[in-house]
Write a sequence for this structure.
C-alpha cells in the first residue's frame, strides 16, 4: 500500500470545483467524520469518527510493515496519530483541526460465515494470524482505535450519523435492498485525491449481490463462489471510471435513502477501479456488534 505525505492534507478547501459529474471537491466541513491515521508524514489509512473517543479503521491497512519491516502498524499504535479536520482552519479555531494519539486497538473476529456475531475480540493484539481471512484480506476488516483525549466536536470534527442497529435479519434487510436497489443511487463518501491535493466526494451506486459476485468472478477466478459471500458485505460502484483505493479503506458511505446515515465502511478496494469491479463495504450492523463487544455499550 502506498504512503502519502500529509502536507497535501493541509490544502483541503471548501470551494466546490467540479471534477466530473461523479466527484466534486469538498472539505471536512461537509464530511466532519473523515479522518486519517498517519505515522509521521506517512498516510496509513482513512478512518471514520464513530464516537468522539473512537474511530473505525481498516485492519488490513494497519497490517502493513512500517519502515522497520519487522514491525507492523497494528503492533505500534502508540506511534500513530489520528488527524481530523482541516489544518488551514486551525488558526480560526483550534477545534477545526485536531490530532489525537491512539491508546487502544480493538480487533474482532468471526467464527462462522452464516452467523452475524463477533467471535472473540482482542485488545492490542501482537499478531493477526488467528483472524479469519477471506480472498483479499482480513474477513472482518474493521478495527476500533480509541483516542486520547477524545475529540472535541466542531464544524470540522464530528461523529458520523450511523444507521441504527438492525432489529431483524441482515439477510432480510439486504434482500429488500436488492429488490429496491434503484432507489439507492444517492450514496456518497469522501476520498483523498493525492494527485489534485484535495478531498473529494465520490458518488457511488449500490450493486446487487449477484451482480457483484459475477463481477468478481470475471475479475478473478478464485473469487467464483468464494467472494464476496459473507453476510456483512455490500457492494457499491463509483459512477466514474476511477474508484476507491486500498488506502481509502475505513471511509464511510452515506445514502440519502437512509437520511444520510452511514450504511457501510469501505473494506475491500482492489485496484482503484482499474478492473471495473465494485468496491466492497462492511455493513454497519457489524460496526454495532464490534463496538458493543469492545465497550459493552451501544453505538449511538
Amino acid at each position: 500500500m502506498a504512503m502519502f505525505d500529509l502536507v497535501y492534507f493541509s490544502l483541503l478547501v471548501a470551494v466546490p470545483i467540479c471534477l466530473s459529474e461523479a466527484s466534486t471537491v469538498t472539505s471536512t466541513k461537509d464530511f466532519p467524520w473523515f479522518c486519517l491515521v498517519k505515522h509521521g508524514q506517512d498516510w496509513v489509512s482513512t478512518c471514520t469518527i464513530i464516537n468522539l473517543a473512537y474511530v473505525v479503521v481498516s485492519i488490513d491497512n494497519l497490517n502493513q510493515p512500517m519502515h522497520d519491516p519487522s514491525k507492523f502498524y497494528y503492533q505500534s499504535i502508540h506511534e500513530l496519530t489520528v488527524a481530523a479536520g482541516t489544518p488551514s482552519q486551525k488558526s480560526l479555531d483550534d477545534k477545526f483541526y485536531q490530532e489525537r494519539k491512539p491508546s487502544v486497538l480493538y480487533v474482532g473476529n468471526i467464527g462462522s460465515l452464516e452467523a452475524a456475531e463477533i467471535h472473540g475480540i482482542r485488545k492490542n493484539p501482537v499478531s493477526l494470524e488467528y483472524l479469519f481471512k477471506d480472498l483479499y484480506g482480513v474477513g472482518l476488516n474493521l478495527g476500533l482505535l480509541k483516542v486520547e483525549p477524545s475529540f472535541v466536536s466542531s464544524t470540522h470534527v464530528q461523529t458520523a450519523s450511523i444507521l441504527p442497529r438492525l432489529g431483524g435479519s441482515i439477510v432480510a434487510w439486504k434482500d429488500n435492498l436488492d429488490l429496491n436497489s434503484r432507489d439507492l443511487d444517492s450514496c456518497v463518501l469522501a476520498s483523498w485525491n493525492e494527485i489534485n491535493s484535495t478531498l473529494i466526494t465520490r458518488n457511488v451506486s449500490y450493486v446487487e449481490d449477484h451482480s457483484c459476485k459475477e463481477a468478481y468472478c470475471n475479475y478473478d477466478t478464485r473469487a467464483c463462489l468464494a467472494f464476496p459471500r459473507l453476510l456483512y458485505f455490500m457492494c457499491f460502484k463509483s459512477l466514474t471510471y476511477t474508484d476507491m483505493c486500498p488506502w481509502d479503506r475505513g471511509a464511510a458511505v452515506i445514502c440519502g435513502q437512509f437520511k444520510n446515515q452511514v450504511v457501510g465502511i469501505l473494506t475491500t478496494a482492489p485496484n482503484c477501479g482499474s478492473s471495473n469491479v465494485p468496491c466492497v463495504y462492511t455493513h454497519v450492523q457489524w460496526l454495532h456488534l464490534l463496538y458493543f463487544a469492545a465497550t459493552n455499550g451501544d453505538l449511538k
